[in-house]
Design a protein that fits this description.
globular; nine-stranded mixed β-sheet; 25% strand; Rossmann fold; single chain; 515 residues
Length: 515
């Protein structure tokens, strides 16, 4: 049993239904299945089962369908984020022992350097046209069999290897098995049942959570609308045009949508699940999102090592009843999903009770096999028989999980622990704040001082005094920032996460200790 079985189930039932739509092009399940068979058969002529195939492409439907062929052929998919720096791409394909690179012609200028730096790559194919040093994939497949030889793919075979992002150092290779992604599909099928196949809008990079969501959508016979980028106005237009039912975006893009003066001019009534994740979302902005987009907001919590679906907060838990419980629930990431076991653990490996803060840990079929060629990191993250997420959180008596912060982001100021996310939630509540990052900076008196870096909404204004006063009233003197800086734009990773490491480096440069 493999991940491909879920797609084939839908392809048999819904052969003529649109699997992908991009621009004016509509690709039905039959065409997608046929192409995936040819990719699997073609690659099988030169690659061995278990070889690693990297795909470097912007959001593009046929590129993702090629991924189905990679999986069908028993190869390992290495997704490369199209927004990566070239040095990061080279490091990733080299560290993960890439055997074959499928690339979009928009990366033609980078391919020569990749090939020169990673001589292990023995097969190079251009996805959309003939390349300078590689044939076009379709031309290369012209004589490939129309049906790939059937493989008895085991659920515990590695089928994907994702980089951890590298925002805190060298990226680690997360080895995901078929059963990990099938557990994710099962979680979403249980959490979001649809009477009719959903219409999913893929605007965030398909190399990350937005791509994971495609596997669940395809298992239902749903249609995926592909946008090249998560442009806020284009997203709003696509929701209305295609009657989108399901959407995933990181909070950063949702904030930009809410700040768009045209945001209330579109029809969002088709939306059933507007899923946010990858970073915490401010409660006040979440309330605004519910007011604008309707009762469809839903949160999924996971990470590459346990994809997308450790916990889930459905739309009905976003409804305010005027009491403290429902208000607090807006800051929760939900309860454990059916194929995920989630708990809170202290540093000694003891599981904690309700309302006790510790590290969020998980176990079950959703959790990765381990890190590629990194047994030390694998053992560390699997200590005490649970996967350690690196997130600090707590669980209430009803099983709702609340993320407090990343363990590494905690600021110790004057002997007190301050979790930046708590301060950020207060700052996000200010109407002029588009986004923010709270870090600890060196301070002779306090050791570390809490500092806020603010990105304002377009044409909005706010003063340092305003924001400091807001935090002192809501948080008290210890947790409130000692200073505020306004930056035109916060540094972000290729998937839109704020890079606190890059911000910290500006203030800690040249110091032996970073704390």
């Amino acid at each position: 049993m493999s991940l491909v079985n879920a797609f084939d189930y839908a392809a048999r039932r819904f052969a003529g239904r649109a699997a992908f739509v991009q621009g004016e092009e509509r690709i039905d399940y039959a065409a997608a299945a046929a192409f995936s068979h040819r990719v699997a058969a073609g690659l099988g002529r030169q690659l061995a089962r278990g070889d690693k195939v990297a795909v470097l492409s912007p959001n593009e439907a046929w590129s993702f369908i090629a991924v189905l062929g990679i999986l069908r052929g028993g190869f390992v998919w290495l997704p490369i984020n199209a927004r990566n720096a070239l040095a990061d791409t080279i490091a990733q394909v080299d560290d993960f022992d890439c055997d074959c690179l499928l690339y979009h012609s928009s990366f033609e200028a980078d391919v020569a350097r990749i090939r020169a730096s990673v001589p292990r790559i023995r097969l190079l194919l251009c996805l959309d046209r003939p390349g300078q040093a590689a044939p076009a994939l379709r031309d290369w497949l012209a004589d490939a069999p129309a049906t790939a030889p059937p493989l008895d793919l085991a659920a515990d075979e590695v089928c994907m290897m994702f980089g951890t992002g590298g925002t805190t150092g060298r990226s680690k290779g997360v080895m995901l098995m078929h059963r990990n992604v099938m557990a994710m599909i099962g979680n979403f099928l249980a959490a979001m049942p649809y009477g009719e196949p959903p219409v999913y809008l893929a605007a965030a990079p398909l190399t990350h959570a937005a791509g994971f969501m495609c596997f669940w959508i395809m298992a239902t016979g749903g249609s995926t609308i592909v946008l090249p980028t998560a442009n806020p106005r284009a997203v709003m237009q696509a929701i209305e045009q295609h009657r989108v039912t399901t959407l995933f975006l990181p909070p950063t893009v949702i904030y930009m949508m809410l700040a768009d003066p045209e945001v209330r001019h579109y029809d969002y009534r088709s939306l059933k699940h507007f899923i946010y994740g990858a970073a915490p979302m401010a409660a006040d902005k979440l309330k605004e999102a519910v007011a604008v987009f309707g009762p469809c907001m839903a949160q999924g919590y996971g990470q590459v090592e346990a994809p997308c679906s450790l916990t889930f907060l459905p739309p009905e838990e976003h409804r305010l009843n005027g009491d403290a419980t429902s208000e607090r629930r807006l800051t929760s990431c939900g309860r454990a999903m059916p194929y995920s076991e989630v708990a809170i653990m202290d540093d000694a490996g003891h599981l904690l009770g309700p309302e006790q803060a510790g590290e969020i840990v998980a176990r079950g079929d959703l959790v990765m096999l381990g890190y590629y060629k990194n047994p030390e990191a694998t053992a560390e993250t699997a200590a005490h028989g649970w996967h350690h997420t690196g997130d600090v959180g707590l669980m209430d008596a009803d099983g709702f999980v609340y993320i407090v912060d990343r363990k590494k982001d905690m600021v110790i100021t004057g002997g007190f622990n301050v979790y930046p996310s708590e301060v950020e939630r207060v700052l996000w509540s200010h109407p002029a704040v588009q986004d923010c990052a709270v870090i600890g900076v060196p301070d002779e008196k306090w050791g570390e001082a809490v500092k806020a870096i603010i990105e304002l909404k377009p044409d909005a204004t706010a003063s340092e005094a305003d924001l400091l006063a807001l935090c002192r009233v809501r948080l008290g003197g210890v947790k409130a920032p000692k200073s505020v800086e306004f930056w035109p734009q916060l540094p972000r990773s290729p998937v839109g996460k704020v890079l606190k490491r890059a911000i910290r480096e500006r203030f800690w440069a040249g110091r032996a200790r970073q704390i």
